């Protein structure tokens, strides 16, 4: 009986350790449109899909030109029915290079932020 308890305890501990990384993971960007360092026509929106669901109230996308001036008169929002994606509608952008600034808070409370550039021809 003692041996059974030790085996059971070892199994429970091993399963707990194996599951721990997912409980402490961060929501990293998996798909960004427009793509980082891309060049193309002006997008009508910017969207970022993350590896995990994010909290819409604490997650956002901002767009600036290279001088740091805001290029997004609207606010970003969660995409309905997709808890991993946030989107920002943008006005018609003139040719130039722009910087996407993003912040997310995953549902487990971890905060990440980053930025990337794209160019409109």
- How many separate domains make up the residues? 1
CATH architecture: Sandwich
Instruction: Assign a percent range to the helix content.
Output: 10-25%
> Main sheet?
4 strands, antiparallel
Number of strands: 8
How are helices and strands ordered from N to C?
A: HEEEEEEEE
Side by side, the strands of the main sheet go 1-3-6-5
Structural class: alpha+beta
N-to-C span: 73 Å
Tertiary shape: elongated
Q: What is the CATH T-level topology?
A: Immunoglobulin-like
Low-pLDDT stretches: 6-23
Strand percentage lies at: 35-45%
Tally of separate helices:
1
Please state the CA-atom Rg, rounded to the nearest Å. Answer: 20 Å
Family: Belongs to the CopC family.
Region (Disordered): 65-86
Keywords: Copper, Metal-binding, Periplasm, Signal
Main location: periplasm
Write the layout of secondary structure elements.
Layout: H1 2-23, E1 29-33, E2 39-40, E3 45-50, E4 60-65, E5 77-79, E6 82-89, E7 96-105, E8 111-120
Parallel strand pairs: 2-8
Antiparallel strand pairs: 1-3, 3-6, 4-7, 5-6, 7-8
Describe what is shown at a glance.
This is Copper homeostasis periplasmic binding protein CopC. With 121 residues, the protein is an alpha+beta fold.
Description:
This protein is of the alpha+beta class. The protein has a single domain (26-120), classed as Sandwich (Immunoglobulin-like). The chain has one helix spanning 2-23, and strands spanning 29-33, 39-40, 45-50, 60-65, 77-79, 82-89, 96-105, 111-120. Strands 1-3-6-5 form a 4-stranded antiparallel β-sheet, with no helix packed on it. β7 and β8 (111-120) form a beta hairpin. The radius of gyration is 20 Å and the shape is elongated. The model is unreliable at 6-23 (pLDDT under 50).
């Amino acid at each position: 009986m003692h041996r059974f308890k030790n085996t059971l305890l070892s199994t429970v501990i091993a399963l707990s350790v194996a599951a721990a990384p997912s409980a402490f993971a961060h929501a990293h960007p998996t798909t960004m449109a427009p793509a980082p360092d891309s060049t193309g026509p002006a997008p009508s929106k910017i969207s970022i899909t993350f590896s995990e669901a994010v909290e819409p109230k604490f997650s956002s996308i901002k767009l600036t030109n290279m001088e740091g001036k805001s290029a997004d008169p609207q606010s970003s929002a969660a995409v309905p029915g997709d808890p991993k994606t946030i989107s920002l509608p943008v006005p018609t952008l003139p040719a130039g290079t722009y910087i996407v600034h993003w912040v997310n808070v995953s549902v487990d409370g971890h905060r990440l932020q980053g930025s990337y550039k794209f160019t409109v021809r």
